[in-house]
Amino acid sequence: MIDKNSPLPIYYQIEEYIKERIQNKQFQPGDILPSEREMAETFNISRMTVRQAINNLVNENLLFRKKGKGTFVAEKKIAQPLQGLTSFTEDMKNRGMIPSNRLLFFDEEIVDPAITKELGIDPSAKVYLIRRVRLADGSPIALETSYIPIDLTPGLTADVIQTSFYHYVEDTLNHTIDYGTQVIGATLASTDEKEYLHVEKGEPLLQIQRKTHLKDGRVLELVRSSYRADRYTFITTMHRS
Ligand code: GLP
User: Fold this and answer.
1) Ligand 1 atom at shortest distance from the alpha carbon of 146
2) Is 153 in the pocket of ligand 1 (CB under 6 A)?
C-alpha cells in the first residue's frame, strides 16, 4: 500500500490511501482519523510526512481539524450550479438529500423602508418576515431570512413554510415564478450563525441575496441567506464568445 521504492512521494501515497478510504466509505463524514503518530507507526514513516499529507487534504476540504480533538473526515460539499432558478428543496432533492427546515421566526412586520423599496411596495405595508434554518439530511446548511409581500401570498402559514415556499407559490397559488437576481459575497459568522449553523463565530460563510420576480413583474421575495462555506459551493459554466 505504501511503496517506499515508488517514484511517487510518500505523502502523496498517504493522501491517495486516505482518499480511497473516503471514496469507498471506509472513512465516513464525521469519522476521526487515526492520529499522526499512529499513522506514522503503521506505515513506518515520519510524522512530518503524515502531517504534509493531512495538510493537503485539509486544504482540499476533504478533512478538517478540531483543536485538541484530532482530524476528521469532512462532509461532501454541495456544488450548486448557477444556472436555473431553483429552490432549496429542489436543490437538495436533486442530490438525493432530504431537505428540512427549522422555523425560527414567522410574522407580519413593518420592515426597513430599504426592503419595501426593493419589494416595490408601500413602506407602510407589512411583509412576511421569515427566518429558517435550512437543513440537508439533518445537518444545517443555511440560515435564511425572507421578506415576502403579504398581498402576493395570502394564506401563507408557518406550516406551509416548513416545507417548500416555491412549491406553495406555484402549485397552490398558481403564480409563475419568472427570474431571480442573486448577489453572492462573503461574510463572517455572527452569534446567530454560530448557534444555528453550528460553526465557529467569525468563520467565513457565503452570503447570498436573491430577489425573485413573478411573470407579471411583481417582486415575490427578497431573501438573505448565509451558507456554510465548508458545505456549499457554486459552479458555473462559461462560454468564451
Ligand atoms: C433558496 C433561495 C430562496 C428561496 C428558497 C425557496 O433557498 N435562496 O430565495 O426562497 O430557495 O426554497 P423552498 O421552496 O425550499 O422553501
Assistant:
1) 10
2) no
CA of 196 to the centre of ligand 1 (A): 17
CA distance 124 to 107: 15
Asked if residue 166 has its Cβ within 6 Å of ligand 1, the reply is yes
- The grid coordinates of residue 54 equal 493531512
Q: How far, in Å, from the CA of 100 to the mean position of ligand 1?
A: 12
Cα(64) to centroid(ligand 1), Å = 29
pLDDT tens, N- to C-terminus, the chain (241 residues): 788 889 999 999 999 999 999 989 899 999 999 999 999 999 999 999 999 999 999 988 889 998 889 999 998 888 888 889 999 999 999 888 899 999 999 999 999 999 999 999 999 999 999 999 999 999 999 999 999 999 999 889 999 999 999 999 999 999 999 999 999 999 999 999 999 999 999 999 999 999 999 999 999 999 999 999 988 888 888 989 8
One-character DSSP codes across 135-203: EETTEEEEEEEEEEEGGGSTT--HHHHTS-HHHIIIIIS---EEEEEEEEEEEE--HHHHHHH---TT-
Reported pTM: 0.81
159 to 29, 155, 171: CA distances (angstroms): 32, 10, 15
Rounded to a whole number, what is the largest CA-CA distance in the chain?
Answer: 75
CA of 59 to the centre of ligand 1 (A): 30
CA 134 to ligand 1: nearest atom: 7
144 C-beta closer than 6 A to ligand 1: yes
